[in-house]
Amino acid sequence: MAKLDLTPLSAIDGFVGAALVDSDSGMALAKLGGGGVDLDLAASGNAEVVKSKRRVAASLKLNDTIEDILISLERQYHLIRPLERNDKLFLYVVLDRSKSNLALSRHELKNFERSLEFA
């Protein structure tokens, strides 16, 4: 896989940091920014969130896929988006809640995912 450039995500209003994460290992394959957020630690922890939600969805026999997971904090949004073309990977984005538009951010993240090309 070619080196992945997460730079376009920094154009999202309120951008703090982002990572492309391997959901099996919890390792960040690419990172950008982060501010005070330890993206490696967040990648590992959020891989567990994705695995847990998938287990629950399977147990409930939802027969559906996760589009994204939103964690709302007082000052931040944390968006987790499993990739449609490779569900072993997910994008993780941290946004400053006071500067971001959640609906627009989700739309921009989806567009970024569509632009990804894997070798």
Q: Can you tell me about this structure?
A:
The chain is α+β, with helices and mostly antiparallel strands. The chain has one domain: Beta-Lactamase, CATH 3.30.450.30. The protein is 29% helix and 28% strand. The protein is built from two helices and five strands, in the order E-E-H-E-E-E-H. The chain has helices at 39-59, 102-115; strands at 15-22, 28-33, 69-72, 76-82, 89-96. A hairpin with a 6-residue loop joins strand 4 and strand 5. The longest helix has 21 residues, at 39-59. It is globular, with a radius of gyration of 14 Å. The mean pLDDT is 93.
Descriptive key words:
119 residues, alpha+beta, Beta-Lactamase, five-stranded antiparallel beta sheet, 28% strand, globular
CATH superfamily: Dynein light chain 2a, cytoplasmic
Q: What is the third-level CATH name, the topology? A: Beta-Lactamase
The major beta sheet can be summarized as: 5 strands, antiparallel
Q: How are strands sequenced across the largest beta sheet?
A: 2-1-5-4-3
H and E string? EEHEEEH
List the total number of helices: 2
Low-confidence regions: none
Total number of domains: 1
Quick one: overall form? globular
- The name of the CATH architecture is 2-Layer Sandwich
- Alpha-carbon distance between the two ends: 5 Å
**Structural class of the helices, strands and pairings?**
alpha+beta
Please report which band the strand proportion falls in: under 5%, 5-15%, 15-25%, 25-35%, 35-45% or over 45%.
25-35%
CATH classification, class level: Alpha Beta
Residue share in helix = 25-40%
Beta-strand segment tally:
5
Question: Gyration radius, to the nearest Å?
Answer: 14 Å
Provide the residue-averaged pLDDT: 93
